[in-house]
Design goal:
The chain is an alpha+beta fold. It has one domain (about 1-80): Alpha-Beta Plaits (2-Layer Sandwich). It has two helices and four strands; from the N terminus they run E-H-E-E-H-E. The chain has helices at about 20-30, 50-60; strands spanning about 1-10, 35, 40-45, 75-80. A four-stranded antiparallel β-sheet has the order 2-3-1-4. It is globular, with a radius of gyration of 12 Å.
Length: about 80
């Protein structure tokens, strides 16, 4: 099992994530992958292929909603559980 934590910057805080962060979360969920949303970032846990697919999906453009590409920076930490 692997865990990937990703944060998209700038993260402006507040009650809800910025649109480009929410778009990344929505894209991963639409791919059928569960996302844990935290105060400082998001995370996915699963087999390596699933975790890497979640990061790929989050980084890609989905229709009109840009995801990680609109944030100026994304940090990803991959670890083995």
């Amino acid at each position: 099992m692997f865990r990937a934590e990703f944060s998209i910057y700038p993260f402006l805080g507040g009650e809800a994530p910025p649109d480009y962060v929410q778009a990344a979360i929505d894209a991963v969920r639409a791919a059928g992958i569960d996302v844990d949303v935290g105060l400082l970032g998001e995370s996915v846990t699963g087999e390596l292929d699933t975790v890497l697919e979640a990061i790929r999906v989050a980084a890609a453009r989905r229709g009109r909603a840009a995801t990680l590409s609109q944030g100026s920076r994304a940090a990803v930490v991959l670890s083995r559980c």
